[in-house]
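Late entry, written up from scratch paper. The run itself happened at the end of the previous shift, but nothing got recorded in the book at the time, so transcribing now.
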Amino acid sequence: MATSSHLNWLIIRNNNAFLLKKRDVNKPFSTEPNNLACVSSYRYSGIVHKKTLGVVPAADKKGFTAVLKKGKYAQRPAKNTVRVDFKAGPRRSLKKLKNLLIGAKYRKDLTQAALRRASAVLRSQKPLPTKGKKAELSKGKKPE
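Output as recorded:
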């Protein structure tokens, strides 16, 4: 028997395996998959909704992967997720993700959060800047 997502949220909101409670933090964090904001709230929950969206780094650490859950196959876990890779470069990949979500009318409320998460994933994959000549000069080395 299928229950509503609101009822499911009321059942699991205070006790589930993905809650991460900290001292002096009003809103507990969540480690569940497909939770874009990592916050324990009904809006971002990846467990209770039939349609969810997750953004994870790609397997080869170049680009990101959008994980979509199809509402049609909610009761069939083997068929209910679709993974779409984005590796065309940062700006183009973000534009493609936005077009995918807006064009398919897939959870409009999560579009901005998905773009922020994808941007953070891409930023984390950029190499750290190397130390240049100015850094060496400031450490006291003599120029040659």
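The radius of gyration is 20 Å.
(Scratch paper discarded after transcription.)
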